[in-house]
Each structure stands twice: as C-alpha cells, then as structure tokens.
Amino acid sequence: MEFRYLGDSGLKISEITYGNWLTHGSQVENDVATQCVHAALDAGISTFDTADVYANTAAESVLGDALAGQRRESLEILTKVYWPTGPRGHNDSGLSRKHIMESISGSLKRLKTDYVDLYQAHRFDYETPLEETMQAFADVVRQGKALYIGVSEWNAEQLRAGADFAAELGISLISNQPQYSMLWRVIEEEVIPTSEELGISQIVFSPIAQGVLTGKYQPGAEPPAGSRATDEKGGADMIKRFLRDDVLQGVQRLQPVAEKNGLTLAQLAVAWVLQNDNVASAIIGASRPEQVTENVRAAGVELDDGTMAAIDEALGDLAERNPRLTQSPSSRVS
After folding, report:
1. Is residue 177 part of a domain?
2. What is the DSSP string of 17-74?
3. Phi, psi dihedrals of residue 134, rounded to the nearest 5°
C-alpha cells in the first residue's frame, strides 16, 4: 500500500480508502461486512470512510464493530454530516450548529472512538450561514472530536469560501470528496485547479462508476442477477445514468488496454483516478472480501502516457465533464 498526504496537512492516508456506502447495514450481512473490513486491513488499507446517513446510521455501527480491537492510532476514520438521520425531524439534517454537534456525538458512539480523523460536510447547506457551519466545525476540532475538516461535492466557489472561513478560525479544511471516474470528470475544470491553489486534496468516490467500469454490464443485455443495477435499495438509482449501450460499448473497448497493463478493468479504473496528483485516495466498497483484495492492487500502479491516451480514445466523448454538475441540493431533504 502507498500513502499520500491529505491536502497541505501532515496527515497521510492510504491510496485506497475502504468505504461502506450502499453496503454495510444494507446490502450485505454484518458478518460479511466485517470480513470485508478485515480484508482491507490485511491489504494494508488504513483509511475507512463512512457517514451517519448510510443505512440511517447503521453503517457507522457496523464499521465501529468491525474495527474493534485495532490500534486506533494506525487508522484514519472518516465520517460525514448533512443528510437526514433518525426520525428525519426538522433539525435532523443540514449543517446547523445544532445538527453538527449532535451528529458528531452520535457518530463517535457508533464508531466506538473518541475522535474521527476527518469530519466532512456531506453537501453544502444553502439554508445555514457558512460562518455558523465553519464555527461549529472549528469547535468540534477544538473539542478533540475531529482532527481535520473536509467537505463532499462542494463546487469551486464553495471550497474557496469554506477555506477562507477555516483559515480565519485557525482550522484546516484539507479535503473534498467528489465523485470521479473515467466516466465522470466534472471536477477537472474548476474544482481541481481551485483545490490545488487552496491546498485541498480529493478523496474520490465511485472510481469504477458504481461497477460499470468492471465490464460486467454488457451492451444490450440484462444486468447480472444480484448486481448493483438490480438493487432496489438505492444502488439501481445511482448506476442507471451509466447503463447506456454507447457507454457500455466504450467500457468494452477498455478491455485490451487493461490486459496490456496486466490489470483488470476495475483495477485500471482505480489506477486511473490515482494518476491525478490532486487525488489523495480512491474509495472502494465491497460486498465480498475478494473484491477488496482484487481492487487494492491498483495502489502504486503507474499508467504511462500511451495508456492514458488509449483510455481517452476508447471512451471518446462519453465522459461527463460539465462542472455545473458538482452541486448540492438547493434545500435540505427532511
């Protein structure tokens, strides 16, 4: 496993982060989830990402149980706040001081830890003054409940405003967690240049486009039984944008590129996002321990210019690049 600094901080995280969105507490049984976490640890992964909203807090509990007994100082545990949790009351979402303070306490209990290494704003909150949000985050850091602050899916303007408040408050805003893959490149035009200027790294999710970049979805064919595209608990909604025949045909054209480099398609996809210097880590999920073992082999892989060009040629104009698609809901879901 290779490790990279997160933003301009002194914190190092593993190039591959294990994340439990759409899996723990939902798609897979708890014993299998624990096996996946232990496979990640065995592979050298030290960074684990979750959120209070995943499976309505259950995912944090599953991860806390799975990491029990591990040396805490050897781990980087990341979680998030914003989306509705609990009974979805009027203060059960957003980035108000009330919701942040209550949410961090709940997350720490479920994760069975005294602090998280990174506490992230899961989206931008248009209904709460940014100053209130950042002041609450600063207090969370000063109370020792989080070491650093990050965000998720903030656009360039929001990152700049957040970084300015953080600097005034004496805390470190060091990361953004956006979606990023060969097929979803919306952060490249604005978010990444701004982040490089501000000393913010990307921890990217869905590097294999919810499984599309594994090549298991075939043009003109029904999705495989048990795949994410057949999951009615949320997976099917997330993946459907990529399940077009032209996209699936483009993915098939990547197969010889992967084979030439001695990689699976999934490994090629994860290695591709890690070629971007502003990406500190790629988040992978798993429903089976073997998936972790397989995909972690993308760590440390260097793709030459010819390979990068061949990937662009295979996909042509199929990748989404519109920077306006980096966005948060205009109003909270409650």
Report:
1. yes
2. EEE-TTSBTTTB-HHHHHHHHHHHHHTT--EEE--TTGGGGHHHHHHHHHTTTS-GGG
3. -70, -35
- Kindly report, residue by residue over 18-27, the tens digit of the pLDDT: 998 866 555 5
260 belongs to a structural domain = yes
The rounded distance, in Å, linking the Cα atoms of 160 and 137 is 16
Distance set, CA 157 to CA 11, 124, 192, 273, 318 (Å): 25, 11, 12, 23, 27
Residue 71 phi, psi (nearest 5): -65, 115
Backbone angles phi, psi at 150, to 5 degrees: -140, 180
Number of domains in the chain: 1
**Is the pTM above the cut of 0.85?**
yes
CATH of the domain at 185: 3.20.20.100
- Provide the residue range defining the domain that includes 249: 3-325
User: Residue 330: inside a domain, yes or no?
Assistant: no
> Catalytic positions, please?
54
Average pLDDT, the chain: 92
Nearest to 205 by CA among 169, 176, 173: 176
**Per-residue pLDDT tens for 72-108?**
999 999 999 999 998 888 999 999 999 999 999 999 9
- Is 51 part of any domain? yes
Contact 98, 133 (CB under 8 A): no
pLDDT digits (tens, 9 = 90+) for 148-190: 999 999 999 999 999 999 999 999 899 999 999 999 999 999 9
